[in-house]
Design a protein that fits this description.
With 209 residues, this protein is of the alpha/beta class. It has one domain: Rossmann fold. The chain has six helices and nine strands; from the N terminus they run ααβαβαββαβββαββ. The strands form two sheets. A seven-stranded mixed sheet has the order 3-2-1-4-5-9-8, sandwiched between helices. A two-stranded antiparallel sheet has the order 6-7. β1, α3 and β2 form a beta-alpha-beta unit. The structure holds S-adenosylmethionine.
Length: 209
């Protein structure tokens, strides 16, 4: 798999976004998610799906999670590996078809601003694939640009690669259909740096499907 859009801008991206988070809310949301994962630790690895430059992967590792970063862009991964040589990064995409976990399960998944790049028709299958690898109680956090229009999933003019905005309820429904129950969500409003509202949605693998 490839991600030519991100390959082309990786160096630029790295210069423009040298830190994991653009807002204090994002930092706290990821911290709250990590705390939730650590509250009831499960066997297995935490996957940072679409990890990009690895900054969030490193933040999660620093918070005590055993995390692997996964990304389809070799250029983004190359920078991630240079930035964080002590961490593990795998070339794969959200389908996780090439990710060898060495027999370990998936304890949690973080997918920030990466599922937005999947055609919406691919998302149910991807979420079901994660659910199949995760034990009951395991947590996912999905973040992306969103919309206030109820029911809407619509393509938007992302600067790097084709992308879609999901209304938070639609995202929650897709997670629910794959076997995850929403735990909480945050929405940030647009500002000078962000054209769209952004959602972070945390859900837990159901105990009974
Ligand atoms: C906006 S960056 C987000 C990076 C990081 N997750 C963060 O929070 O800063 C989006 C990343 O998603 C990756 N991506 C694009 N398509 C993907 C796919 N199908 N599966 C997984 N990741 C994908 C891109 O290569 C890119 O590194």
């Amino acid at each position: 798999m490839t991600q030519p859009g991100y390959d082309a801008v990786a160096d630029l991206y790295s210069e423009a976004l040298p830190t994991p988070y653009q807002t204090p809310l994002e930092r706290h949301v990821v911290g709250a998610f990590a705390d939730l994962v650590l509250e009831r630790p499960l066997e297995g690895i935490v996957l940072d799906v679409g990890c990009g430059l690895g900054h969030v992967t490193a933040d999660l590792a620093g918070r005590g999670l055993d995390v692997v970063g996964i990304d389809p862009s070799r250029e983004m991964l190359g920078i991630a590996r240079r930035n964080y040589p002590e961490l593990r990064f795998v070339h794969d995409d959200a389908q996780l078809e090439s990710t060898d976990l060495g027999g370990q399960g998936v304890a949690a998944v973080v997918a920030r601003f990466s599922l937005i790049h999947l055609p919406p028709s691919d998302v149910p299958n991807v979420l079901a694939g994660w659910a199949a690898r995760m034990a009951p109680g395991a947590l996912v956090a999905v973040a992306g640009q969103t919309t206030d229009t109820v029911g809407e999933v619509s393509e938007f003019d992302h600067a790097v690669a084709q992308a879609w905005r999901w209304h938070p309820d639609r995202l929650s429904e897709a997670l629910s259909e794959a076997g995850f129950e929403e735990v909480w969500r945050t929405i940030s409003r647009p500002d000078a740096q962000h054209r769209f509202p952004e959602v972070h949605l945390v859900a837990r693998r159901r105990y009974q499907v």
